[in-house]
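for the recovery benchmark. tokens below, seq after
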């Protein structure tokens, strides 16, 4: 099989990645406290619905329902022994939806963090982290993933372990980090530092960027930094949340409207991002707003912070010298 992601990127100025998984599964009735990954086995109609509707909205890339399917996280639900089963099933469901589309759709094997802290901050060793990631990733490859998509990572050492494991599958490797602490990772690293760190990998990542975070304004602020530090070989990803989560009548509702997501998408293109999608709270309807906003759009110069704030709201940044 060829590299479908690289082929599409060579043909197009940008690609559309899909939206949320967890929040869409909750809207479909996922019981509180139950990981959506288990629906790969006993709620397949919901997973298929999500993939089909994201593709219908215009997604060129769909992420498998396997964000929390590494053995470290599955053990919390006494399901670590089902790692291979859940990941093969998740990739197979996405593969079937992609193959049924009337155009090429990339199946990205979603891999989230282990949920554990690595040494010296915790007890997880680099070797154990790589082994856990590899167990998940080999199953994603078996199920039909086109690429390994490592997302919502906040620590360089965990990213290194995940990338090492992913490279062993022979598939292209993509990653996003989360810069939700005043436009830095939880470990204090800037977007620019993250790009520089990815340049130490050999082979280089097929794409790198930011996902999740504290709303679309901060996400775009991070993407500005990513694109400033990128070189001509970097493909930058923007996959931001659909606004800010709010508790309304006992339910979590994301504040982002179609108009907000349209503004976010255009600013992402202005920055230079070539893969754009949504994260938490992004429904198929909101993804369609992204698709429509970018159709025929001619990118403007990259925004400064004043422009980001004007169009998307405030960005919380640390005072000089505080970090």
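predicted aa per position
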């Amino acid at each position: 099989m060829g590299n479908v992601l690289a082929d599409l990127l060579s043909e197009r100025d940008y690609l559309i990645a899909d939206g949320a998984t967890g929040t869409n599964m909750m809207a479909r009735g996922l019981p509180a406290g139950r990981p959506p990954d288990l629906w790969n086995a006993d709620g397949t109609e919901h997973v298929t619905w999500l993939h089909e509707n994201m593709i219908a909205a215009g997604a060129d890339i769909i992420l498998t329902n396997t964000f929390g399917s590494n053995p470290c996280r599955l053990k919390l639900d006494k399901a670590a022994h089902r790692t291979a089963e859940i990941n093969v099933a998740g990739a197979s469901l996405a593969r079937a939806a992609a193959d049924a589309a009337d155009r090429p759709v990339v199946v990205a094997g979603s891999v989230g963090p282990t949920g554990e802290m690595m040494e010296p901050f915790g007890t997880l060793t680099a070797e154990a982290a790589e082994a856990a990631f590899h167990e998940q990733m080999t199953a994603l490859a078996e199920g039909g993933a086109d690429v390994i998509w490592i997302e919502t990572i906040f620590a360089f050492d965990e990213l290194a372990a995940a990338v090492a494991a992913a490279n062993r599958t022979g598939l292209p490797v993509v990653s996003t980090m989360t810069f939700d602490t005043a436009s830095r990772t939880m470990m204090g690293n800037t977007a620019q530092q993250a790009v520089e760190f990815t340049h130490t990998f050999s082979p280089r990542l097929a794409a790198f960027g930011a996902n999740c975070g504290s709303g679309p304004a901060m996400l775009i602020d991070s993407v500005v930094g990513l694109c400033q530090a990128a070189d001509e070989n970097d493909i930058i990803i923007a996959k931001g949340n659909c606004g800010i989560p709010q508790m309304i009548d006992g339910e979590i509702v994301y504040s982002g409207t179609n108009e907000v997501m349209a503004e976010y998408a255009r600013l992402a293109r202005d920055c230079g991002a070539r893969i754009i999608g949504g994260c938490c709270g992004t429904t198929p309807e909101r993804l369609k707003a992204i698709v429509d906003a970018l159709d025929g759009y001619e990118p403007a110069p990259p925004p400064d912070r004043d422009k980001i704030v004007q169009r998307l709201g405030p960005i919380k940044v640390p005072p000089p010298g505080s970090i």
